[in-house]
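Students often ask why inverse folding is considered easier than folding. One informal answer: many sequences map to the same fold, so there is more than one right answer. In these notes we will look at a single instance of the problem. The structure comes first.
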């Protein structure tokens, strides 16, 4: 039976098992997961947090990571500024980025989701409000959600991937992982 692991990746952890690109040691998946022959299905930037799926099944890995399968990925995004209806509609229709128009996304303003504290904390500025969005995309361009929010005038302060397809973080705390079932 193929193995599938759900991992709540903390901020500043690389989405790989080794670190070959730095003079100073950085945390990697091997600091949290001691399971042989599993590999990330997709990526999550070092400065992003949340759900990362790992598997030992190449076909499942491709189904999760390859944009042609259009697997929805939902992010909770703390942005600088106040999102108005126009910004939300732009995100929903698709945003023009340097590498082309994004696919339409589901986007909505949400109340503070009361997540775990981030280390290091998000910078706070009294003069600039921050708000939360829930954004669901079906593609996976490099730093796509951050670039989309910036393009509509709402720079991302914190990015947490909450779900990928049928799998979500639920009660996993940062640094925790569990085995999961898959179809």
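Output (designed amino acids):
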């Amino acid at each position: 039976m193929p193995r599938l692991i759900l991992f709540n990746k903390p901020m500043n952890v690389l989405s790989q098992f080794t670190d070959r690109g730095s003079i100073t040691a950085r945390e990697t998946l091997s600091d949290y997961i001691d399971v042989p022959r599993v590999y990330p299905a997709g990526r999550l930037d070092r400065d992003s947090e949340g759900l990362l799926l790992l598997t030992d099944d190449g076909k499942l890995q491709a189904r999760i990571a390859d944009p042609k399968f259009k697997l929805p990925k939902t992010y909770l995004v703390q942005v600088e500024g106040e999102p108005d209806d126009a910004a939300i509609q732009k995100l929903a229709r698709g945003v023009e980025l340097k590498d082309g128009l994004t696919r339409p996304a589901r986007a909505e303003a949400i109340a503070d989701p009361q997540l775990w504290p981030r280390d290091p904390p998000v910078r706070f500025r009294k003069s600039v409000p921050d708000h939360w969005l829930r954004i669901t995309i079906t593609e996976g361009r490099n730093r796509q959600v951050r670039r989309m929010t910036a393009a509509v005038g709402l720079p991302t302060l914190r990015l947490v991937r909450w779900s990928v397809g049928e799998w979500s973080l639920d009660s996993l705390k940062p640094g925790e992982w569990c085995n999961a079932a898959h179809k």
